[in-house]
């Protein structure tokens, strides 16, 4: 194949890759927004307190637990 | 198969696969950045501009810059919690 023609296979691969990236990106974005609202209650300081950091981590982990539970429940 | 590469007009230069991929990547990165910006704007407006005055006060602008830094940090923390555990 000469270099000027379009390689559909290569493009398809890129698109699949980017689709996955977009899904992960969206998930992180949504969760960050939700957990920010739950965990960062005061005005943002120059550094997160350890309780804020812990809350953010827990928030993301519990969300994963929740989505597993929801899936299992709906599969029954 | 050929719809991309067939020239629509004689004068436009042919795009190679690499060009198209490069354009896609750039546009996606732009879209991500815009979306992130919009979110940060909303969050920090909510946190820092509680009572809009006649101009942006010093404490408001320092709140905004801290808020942006913290939001970026929070995104990192969430990402790490989701993907680097278990």
Automatic annotation (TrEMBL), chain A:
It comes from the Eukaryota. SUPFAM superfamilies: Tim10-like. One of its GO terms (cellular component) is mitochondrial inner membrane. InterPro entries: Tim10-like, Tim10-like_dom_sf. Pfam families: zf-Tim10_DDP. Keywords: Chaperone, Disulfide bond, Membrane, Mitochondrion, Mitochondrion inner membrane, Protein transport, Translocation, Transport. GO terms for biological process: protein transport. It is a peripheral membrane protein. Residues 14-76 form the Tim10-like domain. It is found in: Mitochondrion inner membrane. Belongs to the small Tim family. Mitochondrial intermembrane chaperone that participates in the import and insertion of some multi-pass transmembrane proteins into the mitochondrial inner membrane. Also required for the transfer of beta-barrel precursors from the TOM complex to the sorting and assembly machinery (SAM complex) of the outer membrane. Acts as a chaperone-like protein that protects the hydrophobic precursors from aggregation and guide them through the mitochondrial intermembrane space. The twin CX3C motif contains 4 conserved Cys residues that form 2 disulfide bonds in the mitochondrial intermembrane space. Heterohexamer. This is Mitochondrial import inner membrane translocase subunit. It comes from Perilla frutescens var. hirtella.
TrEMBL record, chain B:
One of its GO terms (cellular component) is mitochondrial inner membrane. Pfam families: zf-Tim10_DDP. Residues 23-82 form the Tim10-like domain. One of its GO terms (biological process) is protein insertion into mitochondrial inner membrane. Keywords: Chaperone, Disulfide bond, Membrane, Metal-binding, Mitochondrion, Mitochondrion inner membrane, Protein transport, Translocation, Transport, Zinc. Signal peptide: none annotated. It comes from the Eukaryota. One of its GO terms (molecular function) is metal ion binding. InterPro entries: Tim10-like, Tim10-like_dom_sf. Gene3D superfamilies: Mitochondrial import inner membrane translocase subunit tim13 like domains. SUPFAM superfamilies: Tim10-like (SSF144122). It is found in: Mitochondrion inner membrane; Mitochondrion intermembrane space. It is a peripheral membrane protein. Heterohexamer; composed of 3 copies of TIM8 and 3 copies of TIM13, named soluble 70 kDa complex. Associates with the TIM22 complex, whose core is composed of TIM22. Mitochondrial intermembrane chaperone that participates in the import and insertion of some multi-pass transmembrane proteins into the mitochondrial inner membrane. Also required for the transfer of beta-barrel precursors from the TOM complex to the sorting and assembly machinery (SAM complex) of the outer membrane. Acts as a chaperone-like protein that protects the hydrophobic precursors from aggregation and guide them through the mitochondrial intermembrane space. Belongs to the small Tim family. The twin CX3C motif contains 4 conserved Cys residues that form 2 disulfide bonds in the mitochondrial intermembrane space. This is Mitochondrial import inner membrane translocase subunit. It comes from Perilla frutescens var. hirtella (Perilla citriodora).
């Amino acid at each position: 194949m000469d270099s000027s023609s379009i390689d559909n296979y290569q493009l398809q691969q890129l698109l699949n890759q980017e689709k996955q990236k977009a899904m992960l990106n969206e998930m992180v974005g949504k969760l960050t927004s939700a957990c920010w609202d739950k965990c960062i209650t005061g005005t943002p300081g120059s550094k997160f307190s350890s309780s804020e950091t812990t809350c953010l981590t827990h928030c993301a982990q519990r969300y994963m637990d929740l989505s597993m539970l929801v899936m299992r429940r709906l599969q029954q | 198969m050929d719809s991309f590469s067939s020239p629509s007009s004689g004068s436009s230069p042919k795009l190679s696969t690499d060009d198209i991929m490069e354009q896609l990547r750039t546009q996606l990165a732009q879209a991500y950045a815009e979306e992130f910006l919009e979110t940060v704007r909303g969050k920090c407006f909510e946190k820092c501009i509680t009572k809009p005055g006649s101009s942006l006060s010093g404490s408001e602008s320092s709140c905004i810059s801290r808020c942006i830094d913290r939001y970026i940090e929070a995104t990192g923390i969430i990402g790490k919690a989701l993907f680097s555990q278990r």
